[in-house]
Amino acid sequence: MKCKITNKSLNPFMSFGKMPIANGFIKKEDFPKEFFFDMEVGFNEDISLFQLNDHPKPESMFNENYPFFTSSSEHMKIHFKEYSKYIKKFLNGKSKIIEIGSNDGTFLKNLVNDDHKILGFEPSKNVAKIALKNNIPTINEFFNKKSANNIGEYVGKTDLICASNVICHVPNLNELIETVDMLLKDNGTFVFEEPYLGSMFEKVSYDQIYDEHIYMFSASSVRKIFRKFNFELIDVLPQSTHGGSMRYVIKREKNSISSNVKKVIDFEISKKLDRIESCLDFKSNCENSRNKLLEKINLFKRQGKSICGYAATSKSTTILNYCKISDQIDYICDTTIEKIGKFSPGMHIPIKDMNHFYNNQTECVYLFAWNHKNEIFNKEKDFKGTWFSHVEL
Ligand code: DWN
Q: What is the pTM of this model?
């Protein structure tokens, strides 16, 4: 499927090769029917947007078997508690709040006891079920004009729409913004945070690119996109989550723009994040990073060391398939029941539970959840082997 934000076709500048569904953890008997797509990335110069050229259908990723739960990280739970305090400045009294892609309700849970009316949209059935079980009002649908039209009491009356790590998953940004426009009050606010292009370029964390992450935003791209719909980017707040993210605050009013916006946009211009040149540097940085990683892994193997992976993240699918790493890694340990006993997408490395990790002390551990480094190192203080990753730990 093509992404919809302009009709202009992209000229991809890089291919990561054939990729499976990043969260498509798979049983052995399903290997022969595994789905792959060409993962190419391009840069839309009109709106300074880094994006996939093509992506699988959303329904093939977000369905009744989606295996990611926001609550899998204690640190993220704390982050969402803080986020829920931050958004209070956009509320008054009894406000109407919507979260797009509310997952298991980790964020909305912080607002459930207030006087506000809260509602989440979550397309993955198994995940929405958990939120509902925890009494978080949730609509098990993709967020779009059709599903939003069914919640008449929110149309034109919503004070705040929030989203985290989800707007980059939505192929039709035009419809998404039109739906936000339809729901928000005149002085309503849209706040969302996403992995940041500047951080991905700086860390060469190309594993942020996979089927679900159709876009990698910057303040420059967000401002250009929302201006097309008569909205303004009024604040930007860097976040340390997911290896470097940015919180964007959008309103219709154009007279309350924080000085942060100019600072971040000036920074992006100085780093050419608004131009394709930065992408070409990124491309050669990815290739160098892949070579270095393979050298490191091959050295461990020549030294006769065992290697396992820690956390079967979506991101690990890009690393493993782009670098063609399979047998070198004995297994990947993870806390998610839905992934345990299955195999990693594409490269088919077995996924094991944490007991397997503790009972089979491996000499070298590839930290795939490098974005949760502090939380994981804190838990695994007793591990005496070597941690490594493709990014600096
Ligand atoms: O945008 C997205 C981000 C926010 O979350 C999604 N498209 C999917 C997901 O990406 P991810 O899988 O790369 O997310 P994380 O949070 O980096 O990794 C989650 C995985 O790591 C889960 O399978 C659980 C596992 N994990 C673990 O095994 N032990 C995580 C932690 C913190 C741990 O201690």
A: 0.97
Residue 212 phi, psi dihedral angles, 5° rounding: -70, -30
Residue listed under structure tokens 């939505």: 170
Report d(CA 306, CA 303) in Å as an integer. 9
End-to-end Cα distance, the chain:
36
Strand spans (E) along 213-334 = 215-216, 232-239, 245-251, 307-310, 332-333
Distance CA 190, CA 160 (A): 6
- The pLDDT tens digits of the residues spanning 95-142 come to 999 999 999 999 999 999 889 999 999 999 999 999 999 999 999 999
Three-state secondary structure of 66-93: CCCCHHHCHHHHHHHHHHHHHHHHHCCC
Instruction: List ligand 1's pocket residues with C-beta within 6 A.
Output: 68, 72-73, 165, 212, 242, 311-315, 334-336, 339, 369, 371-372, 375-376
Mean pLDDT taken over the chain: 96
